[in-house]
Amino acid sequence: METFLIKALQLILSLSILVIVHEFGHFIFARIFKVRVEKFYLFFDPWFSLFKYKPKNSDTEYGVGWLPLGGYCKISGMIDESMDKEAMAQPPKPYEFRSKPAGQRLMIMVAGVVFNFLLALFIYSMILFTWDDTYLPLKNMKMGMNYSETFQNVGFQDGDILLRADNEELERFGSDSFRKVVEAKTVTVLRDGRETVISIPEDMMQRCMRDGKGFADPLRIPMVVRELPDKNAPAALAGMQPKDSVVAINGVATPTFYDASGLLSENKGEEVTVDFYRNGQLESLTMRTDSAGKIGVAVMLPTDLYQTVTRKYGFFESFPAGIKLGINTLKGYVNDMKYVFTKEGASSLGGFGTIGGLFPSVWDWRIFWERTAFLSIILAFMNILPIPALDGGHVMFLIYEVVARRKPSDKFLEYAQMAGMFILFALLIYANGNDIFRFFFK
């Protein structure tokens, strides 16, 4: 329950920031062009709101709704999700959206998307400035990685060290290297000291989405003790110390962490003999595992065992680096959108459960801001899609107006808005339905 609450709080805080920034983009440009904004709300407020306030001599009511599915900025004289037909039936007023030139209306509509993208670039820049950019080069992972069954079926083997996708060097483990691998014709790996070329099938991404097995696990490392957090745990009572490197359990060699943890799990609550190296000397200790097959040690991570690379950024240096990171993230996301229109891609769509799963079970500010920046890019891209009811739908009709030199009728815009809202609700139900199905049946 605690894990759920931590993830839920991170999700709500992140989306609240993104919604406020997005709607503020619309708000500020509407005010620049002297368009009246009737409401500025975080979350939706059907029937009632949790909080509302209208400053004296202001046309805008500010508030917080009770339905946390987004937010809105109600602009006078605009056909939006409020479907205020009575107001639209009145003659246009000078302060209304529909009375302004197409160019001004276009800037008001794109401002939300622009603000979300600029927010993502700013967050990425501040992440690099605050925490630097530390990563573990793939070539430094001397024991390689453990690959999923999907990738083993096309020729990968546990322990392979990724070198190149086609002729491009693979630098670090992550979504970028994964994308390069699945879209390459060949991938070169280092296997037993020799370079090996693996052919990648054209439908590799579809196979990954269909199987749901993932790509690879970078935790192919020896089991080396980092600390013993519980002095009453089996390892601490037996006399193990930090930096002890486990090499065998009950005489069976355990070259990797998974080998060791697997054997310990097979001996739950039983006495085991642990062989390990300490200061270059092979030693042994006997201990009894707990009911979960654990001995109570915290192990070193790949970044503790292998040489990492750190790139430091000054305040001004962080901005071009953050902009580059944001643009590359957007390119990668846009590139992945082509898979949505496949059977495997559609079934992999997720709703709020999937989005919440992006956040860790313990609060980590760096990860929180990284996920918020990523979601800001997603929100910007999704909102600019030419779907009625989204900003992109309004932009599409405004571009038509500029080119054709005439406005679509209000009746047409009303029907388009209703159609767009139906599409969005259908997608929302489908995506969250996928989450529910995966939770109960997979």
Q: Layout of SSEs?
A:
Layout lengths: L1 H31 L4 E17 L7 E15 L9 H5 L12 H30 L1 E3 L10 E2 L1 H4 L8 E5 L2 E2 L5 H9 L2 E6 L2 E6 L4 H8 L4 E2 L5 E5 L6 H5 L6 E5 L2 E2 L3 H10 L4 E8 L2 E8 L9 E2 L2 H4 L3 E3 L3 H22 L6 H6 L3 H5 L8 H19 L7 H14 L5 H32 L1
Antiparallel strand pairs: 1-2, 3-16, 4-9, 5-6, 5-7, 7-8, 10-11, 10-15, 11-12, 11-13, 13-14
Helix pairs in contact: 1-3, 1-13, 3-10, 3-13, 3-14, 10-13
Q: Which terms summarize this structure?
A:
442 residues, alpha+beta, 4-stranded antiparallel sheet, 6-stranded antiparallel sheet, 15 helices
Compact summary:
This protein is of the alpha+beta class.
What sort of overall outline do the alpha carbons produce when their principal axes are compared?
elongated
Helical amount: 40-55%
Distance between the termini: 20 Å
Uncertain segments are: none
How would you characterize the overall build of this protein?
The structure is a single chain. A hairpin with a 2-residue loop joins strand 13 and strand 14. The radius of gyration is 27 Å and the shape is elongated. The protein contains 15 helices and 16 strands. The protein is α+β, with helices and mostly antiparallel strands and 442 residues long.
